[in-house]
Amino acid sequence: MAHVRKPEWLKIEKGRAQLGKVSRTLESLHLNTVCTEAGCPNQGECYKSGTATFMLLGVNCTRSCRFCKVTTAKPEPVDPKEPEHVAHAVESMNLKHVVITSVTRDDLPDGGAKHFADTILAVRNRVPHVTIEVLIPDFKGEVKDLKTVLDASPHILNHNVETVPQLYKDVRPQAVFERSLELLKQVKDLRPDIFTKSGFMVGLGETQMQVLELLKELKNIDCDMITIGQYLQPSLQHYKVREYVHPDQFERYKQVALEMGIKCVASGPLVRSSYHAEEDLRRLKEMSVS
């Protein structure tokens, strides 16, 4: 397959000046971020504004999705001090909204659910005013593990479907689309007061019709928030970019999703799961009140 040249609209200003300050805070507390481990293109912008997405349970994932930069290797031991370290970082960075995710830990009996809950509670105990978003793995579809996280009452429960179901076999063979969809539906069944969120990439070879069908699936389970971004190939060993989708198409996807009744949609080449997450939550709250 011929190389697809990256277009002008994907050129990114790094914002390096702030990288060191935030990195030093994270390193001093032995914390990881998805910003670094997944090679997020918005790292410079987010670090410049003093924000980051914390990644729990080490840097080694037990799954090997072909799009993801996170390392697949033997997972590290769980650090029992990590929840308090995250809470300390949230306080010292003066965050108003915190996003907490993890690698997938299929080796753990609960997939890391209790560690998520402990971190939510530690953050809330130390910084009561902060709003909390979690981006969780699928916990192999175990409802009891999902309930463990929900019982800690995050404001947003995010679980990404990542791509259209037709590409799961090639892009994320250890995941199941229906299982991810059911997890998001279960959130609404168990805790309708918690906002749900999901996201996916384009440019992996999906068709526009497949994207529209995926949006319908997410609307049918009452997903509150959706993010759509461009897939960027982390290395030559990863799944190849099939297309760089034009910003105008991202805008069309956004308008279609809003017309379907999805409450909040962020769609653009550089959009990622937690990009401008605080602003999205504020808009959702305003819509809920009105």
Written description of the protein model:
The protein is of the alpha/beta class and 290 residues long. The chain has helices at residues 19-28, 34-37, 43-48, 82-92, 113-126, 143-150, 168-171, 177-190, 208-220, 247-260, 277-289; strands at residues 32-33, 53-56, 60-61, 71-72, 97-102, 131-135, 156-158, 195-202, 225-230, 264-267. An eight-stranded mixed sheet has the order 1-2-5-6-7-8-9-10, sandwiched between helices. Strand 9, helix 10 and strand 10 (264-267) form a beta-alpha-beta unit. The protein is globular and about 45 Å long. The model has no long low-confidence stretch (mean pLDDT 87).
Summarize the structure.
This protein is of the alpha/beta class. The chain contains 11 helices and 10 strands.
Share of helix among residues? 25-40%
Structural class: alpha/beta
* N-to-C SSE string, H for helix and E for strand: HEHHEEEHEHEHEHHEHEHEH
User: What is the makeup of the main sheet?
Assistant: 8 strands, mixed
β-strand amount:
5-15%
What is the element layout, followed by pairings?
Blueprint: H1 19-28, E1 32-33, H2 34-37, H3 43-48, E2 53-56, E3 60-61, E4 71-72, H4 82-92, E5 97-102, H5 113-126, E6 131-135, H6 143-150, E7 156-158, H7 168-171, H8 177-190, E8 195-202, H9 208-220, E9 225-230, H10 247-260, E10 264-267, H11 277-289
Parallel strand pairs: 2-5, 3-4, 5-6, 6-7, 7-8, 8-9, 9-10
Antiparallel strand pairs: 1-2
Helix pairs in contact: 4-5, 5-6, 6-8, 9-10
List keywords for this structure.
single chain; alpha/beta; eight-stranded mixed beta sheet; 11 helices
